[in-house]
Amino acid sequence: MPTKAIGTVDLDIEICKGCELCIKVCPVNVLEMSREFNTIGFRYPILLDGCTGCEMCALICPDFCFTAIYRNIPNKRAAEIQ
Amino acid sequence: MPMTKEQAKEQLKKVWSLPKNSVNLGTHHMCPGCGEPMAYRIIGEIIEEMGIQENLIQVAGIGCYSALDVMMQNDRINALHGRAPSVATGVKRMLPDRFVITIQGDGDLVSEGIAEAVHCAARGENFTVFLLNNMVNGETGGHMTATTMVGHKTKSTLQGRDAKVHGMPIKTAELLAQLEGTAYSARGSVHSPAAIIRTKRMVRKALHAQRDNLGFSFVEILTMCPTGWFMETWEAPQFMEDTMTKYFTLGEFKVPEAVEAAA
Amino acid sequence: MGDKQLIDGSKAIAHSAALAGCRFYASYPIQPNSHLIEEMTQELAKIGGVTMNAESEGEAINMVWGAAATGNRAMCSTTVTGMSLMHEAMSEMFAAEVAYVFVHMARGQTEYRVGTRGGGHGEYRYISYAPHTVQEAADLTRLAFYTADKFRTPVMIQADYILTHTVEAMEFHDFDESDLKEKDWAIDGAKGRVPRINSFIRGTYSLGDKSAMAYGELQERAMERIAYLEENVPSLAETGHLDDADLVVISYGYVSRFAKYAVGLLREEGMKIGFVRPITMWPFPKKEVLEAAEKAKALAVFELNNGQMVDDVRLTVLGRVPVHFIGRISQDDSGFGMGKAIEIPNLTAKIRETYEQMKVPA
C-alpha cells in the first residue's frame, strides 16, 4: 500500500468560467489560473505537479470542468467506476 | 524522465467521475461561481446512486435554475413561481409509486410560495422539496427575497436589508420541521467540499424518507450568488462560512428514526 | 345507465365525471361551487379517485395541473372570485398543453368573457360549454372530458347557481371515446424512453428534441392552436322558430330556459319570435347566429351581465341586422343567485318592447 498520495484530474478547460473556486479549495496549491483565455473568454485553471487526487476541486466546481479524478490510493467508489 | 499525464493515469485508479446517466453535462448559462449547479449535481448524484432516474418526476420552480434543468435526465414539469409543491401533490397522488421532487429557489418557495410548502408539509405529502437558498431573486437581477439577511445588499435594498422595513429573514428548514407531516428537514450548503459532502448525505436521507413513505422531506441548500451579492466569485464561499451559516445554521432539524438507523 | 333518475346538477356533473374516468379533483369551498365538492368527494371515492379539498384556489388548480400532466383525467371547479385566483395557472396550463376540465359554478352570467377569452395573461382560449338542464350538464361533462383529451386543451363548463341545485329527471348515457389516441405526452417517469418535459414556456416536448418550440415562440404557437381549435372543435347550438322569426332572442345557460319560455308565451300572442341558444360559447356557433341574422329583422341578446355575449353576436352578424342588448346584471338577495330580470313578466316585457320597437318603420 503506497503511503504518499499521487493523483491527477481530467480537466475540460473549454467549459470553465474562471470562478477560481478550485484554486481556493486546493489543499496542496497545485492549481493555478492561466494567463490565456479559453474559447468562451475566461481564464482557466492549470494543473501543476503534486496533485494528490483529493477531489476537492471536483466537488466545488460549478461548471463541471473536472470530469474525473485518478489516484494511486483507491477509495470505495473506485471499484464501482472501474 | 517525468511521466506524461496519460502515463501517470494508467498507473492510477479512477476514484471519481461525474454522474453521466442522471446529469447531462456541458456548458450551462449560470454565472461564474454560482452554487446552483453544484446543488443540482448533488441531487443528480444521489438520483444516480439510487438508480431512480427512470422512475422520477421533477417539478421545477422558476429562477435561474429553470434554465439549468436540462441537466437532469428525467421527466419534468415546469411549475409556476412558488406553485411547485402543489403541482407535485397532483403528480404524487396520481403516481404514488414514482419519486417526485421539486427544486425551487428562495424567491420561489419562500417569498412566493411559502403557503404551498407549508400546506404540503402539513398534509405530509410524500415527496421531497429542495430549496436552493441564495438570498436573492437571481433571475430578476438580484432583488431581495424573504430570506435575504438583515444588512445584506441587494438591487432593491442597496443600503442593506432593514429589519424595520422588511422584517427578518425566514428560516425555512426550522419552520417546516415544526409541522407534524414533515418527516425530514435539514439545511446544507455548497460553499466548501466538506459542506457538499454533508449536504449529499442530507439529500440521500430525504430521498430515502420518500422511498420509505415517511412523509414530507425537505432539504434547504445554501448556494452562493456572487453576482447578486456584489462579490468576487472566490469571496462568496468565505462570506457564507463567516456570515450566512451563522444565521442559517447548517444541520438536521428533524430526522425520522427509521432513516437515522439506516444511514 | 339508461334508468331515469331524479338528481341535481352538481350530482349529475360529479357522476358524469366519474363515469368519464376522472381520477383527480381539487377545489376550494366557495358558494355555489361547494355543493359540487361534496358530490365529487363521494363519487371519486367510489372509483378510487382522489379529491383534494385544497387550502387555496391557487393550490387546487396547480394540483390539477400536476395530476393532469401525468395523463390522468382531472377536474377543477370554482366560482367567480376563485377563478380570478386560478387564472395565473389557467393561463399557463393552456400554454403547457394540459388537458383538464374546469367547471365554473357561476353566480350570474358575468363571466362569459372570462369563460371564453380567459382572464389571465397571454393568448389563450377555453373550449367552453354552457348546459341549460341537468341532463345536458351530465352529457356535456362527458363531452368535455373527451374534447379535452382529443384536442389536449382545457375545457370549461359554465354551470351556475340554479343548475347546481335544480333537481330534474335525467339519465346517464354511454359515450363513445374509442377514437382517442394514447397519451404520448404523459409525464409518468421516463422508463425506457427519452425524458419528457411539460413546460409552459415551451409546451410539452422530449428532452433534446430539436423541433421543440424555442423560447419566444409561445405566443405564435398559441395563435396557431387557437385558430386550429376554432376551426376543428364542433360548435353546438339549439335553435327554434328561425324559419318565420322577425326577432331572434339569443341566450345561453340556465337563463336561456326562461328566455325560451318567454318566447313561447309571446308566440302564442302571435309575435314572430325565434331563439338561438349557444351550447358551445367558444368556438361561438356562428353558423346558427348567421342563419338567424339572414332571415330575422333584428336580434336581441338576453344575458345576466352588462353585455358580454352580445359582443360575439355583433362580431358574427357584422352589422347585417341590428343587435339589441336586453339583458342586465341581476342578483337575488343572497348575492349568489339570479334576480328579478329572469322573472317571466319582466323578461316578456323586455322582449315585447324590443319587438314592438323593431316593428316601427324607420
What tags apply to this protein structure?
heterotrimer, A: 82 residues, alpha+beta, two-stranded antiparallel ribbon, 20% helix, globular, C: 362 residues, alpha/beta, Rossmann fold, 2 domains, 7-stranded mixed beta sheet, 12 helices, 16 strands
**Model regions low in confidence, pLDDT < 50 over at least 5 residues of chain B:** none
Q: Estimate the global geometry of chain A from the Cα principal axes.
A: globular
In terms of quaternary structure, the protein is heterotrimer
Give the percentage of residues in beta strands of chain B: 15-25%
Order of helices and strands of chain A: EHEEHEH
- The largest sheet of chain B has its strands arranged as 3-2-4-5-9-8-10
Mean pLDDT of chain A: 86
Could you give the topology of this structure?
The complex is a heterotrimer of chains A (82), B (263) and C (362).
Chain A: E1 7-11, H1 21-25, E2 31-33, E3 45-47, H2 56-60, E4 66-71, H3 76-81
Antiparallel strand pairs in A: 1-4, 2-3
Chain B: H1 5-11, E1 13-17, H2 36-50, E2 56-60, H3 65-68, E3 75-78, H4 84-94, E4 99-105, H5 106-112, H6 114-123, E5 128-133, E6 136-137, E7 143-144, H7 163-166, H8 172-177, E8 182-189, H9 193-211, E9 216-222, H10 235-247, E10 251-254, H11 257-262
Parallel strand pairs in B: 2-3, 2-4, 4-5, 5-9, 8-9
Antiparallel strand pairs in B: 6-7, 8-10
Helix pairs in contact in B: 2-9, 5-6
Chain C: E1 5-8, H1 9-19, E2 22-27, H2 34-46, E3 50-53, H3 57-69, E4 73-78, H4 80-95, E5 101-106, H5 112-117, E6 127-129, H6 134-151, E7 155-160, H7 161-165, E8 167-170, E9 196-199, E10 203-206, H8 218-232, E11 237-240, E12 247-250, H9 255-268, E13 273-278, E14 280-282, H10 286-295, E15 298-301, H11 309-317, E16 323-325, H12 344-359
Parallel strand pairs in C: 2-3, 2-4, 4-5, 5-7, 6-7, 12-13, 12-15, 15-16
Antiparallel strand pairs in C: 1-8, 6-14, 9-10, 11-13
